[in-house]
Amino acid sequence: MTSKNTNAALMLHPAANQTHKAFEVYNFAEKIPLVIECMACYDNIFMVGTYSGQILIYEINQVLEPVFDKSIKITKKPIQQIEVVKEFNIVLVLFDYQIHVIDLEKYQLQYSITKSKNCSLFSTSVSKDKKLLRLVVACKRKIQFYYLSNQINSKFMELISDLELNDVPRTLEITSENLVIFSLKKDFFYYELPSTSAGLGTSSELPAQKLNSGSRSIDPLCYKLHNDNFLIAFDENKSVLFDAKGAPILSYPIEWSGCPSFICNIGFYLIAIIPNTNTVEILTMEPSSTSVQLIEFNKESSSTISSSLGSSFTSKIVDFGLGGLGSAAASAPEKLKILKSNKKSVCYVANQSSVWCLSPVNINDQINSAILLKNFDLGLALMSAQSLFNQVTINEIQEDKHLLVQPFYSLSFLQQKMDENLSRKLRNMHALSLFVQKKFVDSFQLFQKMKTDPSHLIAFFPGLLPDGYRARLNLDDYYQSFEPKELEDGVAGLIDYLQFKRNEFLKTDDLALSLEPLIDGRPVIRKKISLLEIIDTTLLKCYLISKESLVQFFLRRDPNFLHLEESERLLNQHNKTNELIILYEKKEAHEKALNLLLTESSKSNSSLSGLKHLVNYMKKIGTKNLALVFKYGKSVIETDYHWGLKIFIGGNFDKLDNLLEEKARQKDENVKETRSLLADSDMVGDTLLSTFLKIDLSESKNKKKNQDSLNLDLSTLIDDDDEFLKDLNHAEVVAFLDEQIEPRELSAYLVKVYLQYCVYVWKDREARINNKLVDIYQAFVDHNYALPGQSVDAEKPKSYKQVLKFLLNYTNNYEPLSTLAKLDLDKYPEERAIVLGKMGHHKDALSIYVNILNDTQKAEAYCEYIYSQSYIAGSKDVFYELLQLYLNSDYEEIRIDASIRLLNMHSKEIGTVKTLELLPAQLMKCKNLSQFFENMLDRIVRTKHDTQIRNRLMVALQLQVHENKIMCQDKKFVVTHEQICHECNKRMGRSAMVRYPNGVLIHYGCLKNSETILKTSNT
Fold first, then answer.
1. Partner of 1014 at 20 to 30 A CA spacing, among 159, 164, 320, 961?
2. Residue 38 has pLDDT above 90, yes or no
3. Which of 34-48, 56-70, 513-527 has the lowest mean pLDDT?
């Protein structure tokens, strides 16, 4: 052991002959010529009950000198028990096995409680409002209950009926919470008094509430303390403390040096007589049961009372006419038998002939003694309990210059007044003494309750604080050396402490941060952010020492206050590459993280090998750090363009091209099927409506009818984890892929795939994004781009052209005018027709189908769809416009056959009058128009017939309504003043009323409550 630790050990363990002195002993009355049986005291008055039936009354002055006041002779029988009730100005005296009431001022017998005969013991309790006194009396095998009010001339009255028991109570107490505790044989029971004074039936059985089992080797002991708690002895040297409601207060028993016979308390001190050794033991209850002083009583105790007292007190006897003065025993035993305190700061202990007074030593001296003995628990308890000892003035604390202790434990730093500063320093002493003893858990638990600067505690562990800051704290005299196991335990305790303080400081305002030094004169941290930075960085060091598996979890916590450079150095020192990436992410040092990931990606033996980790990191930071993503993304694309795309696109993007090409092929197949049906039949109905054109124009301007007729199933392309990628700035990403990636073929491919995701997956409605996708598709049709390393496919432009038509039909978000300007009529006629249709230029679109594509089936299918969408402008004239195109066509075959088919199938949509005006004379003579005229005449006749039927139905309905009106007006009823409401039985008067078909009249206001009448009426 080093000299430093040796000094610490000497400092923490006082010499064997040093003991704490809590109470001074004064010889109060010695060799009284009477046998003492009982005692009572209050304020500065002390009473002694004797075997000869006399009560001796003393008054104690300020210097604890007794002044004999008087002697009262009330009986020849021994005084068994005395109890003073100052609140009611009475003294209860038990003698001759009966309770008597004496006036406290005149010491005159007032009356006796007759029913209390055969009483062996009693107990009292004053209510909290001091208006009621409760008395419980043990009389043979029963307990009696009385009460006394604070009214003038009131007497004890029976509270409730007696409680029958199966044995004689050995002990009896009552608390302010109406809880009665008593013992039978070796067991303790409690009984709760009712809150009212209502009488209860007599119980012949034991109460069911068993409190505790006492010791089998000693008599049952139960003592009520002045704070209304009570102690029960359940073993020869152990007692349990209960509150006034019967609940245990402490989690541990109070242990004595022997078997106690009498117990009382002054402040937080418990005082008991240990009869086997004829001593009085004094101990504290919290934080643990600790004996602080043993006082031994012997025959050589010097008297402080005048020797003439024995002969002079008889002249002051107040005669009650109950007998003369009894004689004292020839030789009184020396064993202590009685212990009483005055509820403030004085305790009396007596044997059969002598009385001693125990008075607390000056509290400042006690605190000094506790510090010198290193009993800091006691020192703190004394400071917090000054008022309990009735001491207000605080004297100067003197320094013991001869005490050989380290500077931290000297008393030179103590203030002259006992204040919060002294209390803080005592707590620091206590906690640090435990730390020196390597009791880290207990030490840090105490530090958690204090405002000590955590950096001062961190400094006790080597290597946790920077050397410069550690030197500034100047704590070299107090540093300890640790064995490996001690260091492990200390670091574990430090982690718990720092975690607790971290959570505490997070809830504290920066202005409210007020730390205290562990040792006076040392600097403390004033800024909250600096303190949290030290705590988090220290915690990282501790985890790296003892709990490496928790380092990643710790680094991911929010908020994170780690010092970046120091943490980076530590993680590099421990080869924690993954953890270093987490640190960079939390501290937003993204460029450092990307550099490290890019370097590690090329190392085959690294846990971060490959591009996956780099890509995933760029995905996380992309929304706010696009410039960095573009900078490092270019390297990824040059290495592997598939991984490069995954930076900006989630899910399986490889399937999207195939899905779009398949959809485009399905549309062309539907068109071919439609043509085949038209070729097989002259009848063109709704079933022949071109699926292709339905899809082409499914995007309507009316949102209520906007449906995704393409039915693209993109669920397999969407990755929920990458959903946030749709919030990227798509225009910037497209510009990056288009302008910074080489060669052009690769750039065009990347832009195409990304734009497809924007439009089809993320539903981007921005016009320039949709326009750009149209341009890319057109570029692929024109240039037939192939990826580097792949051969050129001559059939690929056809596929791209189908996908382009699919896009033009799929969305309305591109700009039609600019798109139309880019589509050459010779190369993209059908695409132009789709765009013209989107713009509402139906005649121009039909002109392309009829005059350029020579595809009348597509033209008529186009008309059918547009006509069915009534919200499209000009939808009702589209067939008429198509007929005009047919008749103005240069092709004779189209003019005749197509016009006839159109007239036969869609005469209703074109309109009869318009059609007749438009048809040329040579076409009017054509026999093939017979179907057109037949349909027209049939439609006119059917319309006329329907109109006639509707008119007749309206006339019949009018007659029926008129008939019902006549029937209702045919009935007459008279309401007189004598008629009453069938619901409320009041006169109808002139109020609004309701008449049921059965003639019942009720007020209109009573209508809601008349359901029964209504049902009867309906029946």
1. 961
2. yes
3. 56-70
573 close to 605: Cβ distance less than 8 angstroms: no
For residue 982, the enclosing domain spans 973-1019
pLDDT in tens, 674-726: 445 444 444 333 322 333 333 333 333 333 333 444 456 676 666 656 667 87
Residue 253 burial by Cβ neighbours in a 10 Å radius (0-12, 13-18, 19+): middle
CATH number at residue 220: 2.130.10.10
3-state secondary structure of 24: strand
Measured CA to CA, the distance from residue 553 to residue 586 in angstroms comes to: 12
Strands in 347-350's sheet, in edge-to-edge order, are 23-29, 355-360, 347-350, 338-341
Rounded Cα distance between 821 and 836, Å, is: 11
Please indicate, yes or no, if residue 1002 is contained in any of the structural domains: yes
Buried/exposed 380-392: b ≥16 CB within 10 Å, e otherwise: bbbbebbebbebe
How many Cβ atoms sit within 10 Å of the Cβ of residue 72? 24
Q: Choose the final residue of a domain: 333, 360, 387.
A: 360
Give the residue from 807, 889, 899 showing the smallest Cα distance to 854: 889
- Cβ atoms 272, 258 nearer than 8 A: no
DSSP H/E element including 182: strand 179-184
The count of other CB atoms within 10 Å of the CB of residue 698 is: 18
Measured CA to CA, the distance from residue 828 to residue 805 in angstroms comes to 10
The whole-number average pLDDT for the span 120-126 is 94
Structural domains counted in the chain: 2
Taking alpha carbons only, the member of 114, 94, 194 closest to residue 155 is 114
Question: How many angstroms separate the CA atoms of 480 and 477, rounded?
Answer: 9
Q: Is 564 exposed, middle or buried (0-12, 13-18, 19+ CB in 10 A)?
A: middle
Each residue of 854-893: pLDDT tens digit?
Answer: 888 888 888 888 888 777 778 888 888 888 888 776 555 5
* Separation CA 789–CA 640 (nearest Å): 13
3-state secondary structure of 91: strand
How many Å separate Cα 211 from the centre of its chain?
A: 38
Query: Dihedral sign, CA of 620, 625, 628, 633?
Result: positive
Residue 807 is encoded by which pair of tokens? 């896009």
In eight-state DSSP terms, residue 979 is: -
**Residues 325, 52: contact at Cβ < 8 Å?**
yes
pTM of model > 0.70 = no
The DSSP output letter for 413 is T
pLDDT in tens, 763-791: 889 999 999 999 999 999 888 888 877 77
> Beta-carbon neighbour count of residue 372 at 10 Å?
17
- Taking residue 713's Cβ as centre, other Cβ atoms within 10 Å add up to 8
Query: What's the mean pLDDT in 578-582?
Result: 94
Give per-residue pLDDT as tens, 907-966: 778 876 777 777 766 666 666 667 777 777 887 888 889 999 999 999 999 999 999 888
CA 781 – CA 787 distance, rounded (Å) = 15
Is 280 among the domain residues? yes
The share of the chain scoring above pLDDT 70, in percent, equals 80
SS3 54: strand
Give the CA distances from residue 289 to residues 249, 373, 392, 647, 823, in Å, rounded to whole numbers and listed in that order.
Answer: 13, 17, 27, 67, 97
Last residue of a domain, which of 305, 336, 360?
Answer: 360
Other Cβ atoms closer than 10 A to 260? 26
Pairing verdict, β 317-319 and 66-73: parallel
Q: In this predicted structure, which of 76-80, 135-139, 382-386, 951-955 has the lowest mean pLDDT?
A: 382-386
**CA–CA distances in Å: residue 734 to residues 54, 633, 728, 779:** 111, 13, 11, 15
Report yes or no on 142 lying in a domain: yes
In a domain, 70, yes or no: yes
Nearest CA-CA partner of 283 in 271, 273, 274:
271
Do the Cβ atoms of 759 and 775 come closer than 8 Å?
A: no
What 8-state DSSP symbol labels residue 896?
Answer: I
At 221, list the tokens: 């002991």
